[in-house]
Specification:
- The protein is mainly alpha-helical.
- It has a single domain, classed as Growth Hormone, Chain: A.
- It is 84% helix and 0% strand.
Amino acid sequence: MAYSGALPVLMKDWEMSAGEAGLIHSGWQIGYLLSLFAAGFLSDHIGAKRTFLTTGFVACSAAWIFAIFANGFLSGLVLFCLAGLCSGGSYTPGLALIAERFSPERRGSAMGWYLAASSLGYALSLVIGSQVIALLGWRAGFFAAASGPVFGALIASYVLRHTRNIVTRRHATGHALDRLKAVWRNGPAMLAIWSYAFHAWELLGLWAWLPAYLTAATTNDYGAAGAVSLGLLLSGLSFATNTIGSIFAGKLSDRLGRTSVMLFMTLTSLACSFLFGWLLMAPLWLVTVVAIVYNLAALGDSPVYSSALAELVPPPLLGVAYSLRSALGFGLGAVSPFVFGVVLDLFTHMTGERGTIAWGMAWATLGFGALAGPFVILQLRKLESHAKFGARLG
C-alpha cells in the first residue's frame, strides 16, 4: 500500500511509465506468491505458529531495506520483489491457525475478522502515508509504513505465546509432491482454488491502481497540489470499509452458504470493474461511493474463499492447499497490475491524453480477466452435494 499510495509522485520522481510502475507492483506480487507457496509447506512441516512468527520478523527487515534503498525503477523493482518474497508468511499460516482454532460454524466469521484487520492496515497505511508524504515526501511515507510490520510482529509474539504449535503427521499424507497431487485431484477444492485465482486478478489490480486513479479523479476538482493527499485519503476510506465487508461476508456465508456469497460478491465487483474507469470526470462523491462498493465486493469475499477451501480438504492437506491457491491466485494477480499499466499507456498514446478512455479501458482489463470466476463458482455449486465437505458450502 505504501508504494501504491506514493505512485502518483513516484511516477514523476522516478520518471516511470505506467507500464514500469505496474511492473514494480507485479514484482512484489511475484515475490509474494513464491513466499506464500513456501509458507504453506512450512506450516505443514514446522507448524503454522512457528512459521507465522519467524517470517513476520523477516518481513520487517525487508520492508526497511526497501524504504531505505529504493531510489528508482531498477532498485525499486529488485527491492520490492525482495520485500514481497519475505512477506507471505503472515497470510497462509494465519489462515491455518484460524482453521485449527475455530469450528466450521464460526470459521467464516473468524476469517472475516482476520481479513478485516488486513483491510484496516491498508487503510491506515494510506491515511497516514497521505499526510507523511504531503509533509515530508515519499521516502518518509515508506519509513512510516515499514514501522507497521514491526508492531505486527511484536503483537503476534504476545498474542500467540500460549498457542500450541501443531505439526501434522507428514507420514500420514506422504511427501510434499504427494500432498500437492492429492489437492490437485480434489475436484471441488480445485474449483474453489480457481475461483479465488480469478478473484485475485481483479483484487490485486484494484489494490495497485486505486490510489493513482482517485488522485487523477480528484485533480478535476482540487487541482494537482492537493490531489495526491486527498486521493490517498479517499483510497484509505474505501479500504477502511472493507473491515465491515469482510466481517459481514464471513458471517453471512456461515448462514447462507459459501458459494451464494461468493457469487453475489463476484458479480458486483465485475460490474464495478467495467464501470469504474469511465467515471473519471464524474462528481467526486460518486467516484468515492463506487470505489467503496468496489472494495467491499472485491475484498469482502476473501474470507469466504478461505473458509470454503478449509472445508473441502482434510486438515493435513490444508497448508499445501493454501499454498497452491496462493500460487495460482497471486500468479494471476501479479500480471494484472502490469497489464493494467500497459493498457493505460497504450490508450493514453492513442488518444493523446490520460483521460476517461484510457482509464476506462485499463479498469476493464480487471473485469475481463475475472470473467471466468462466476462460471467456476456455479460449477462448484453443482458439485456441492458430491463433495465430502460440501455440506458447509451451502
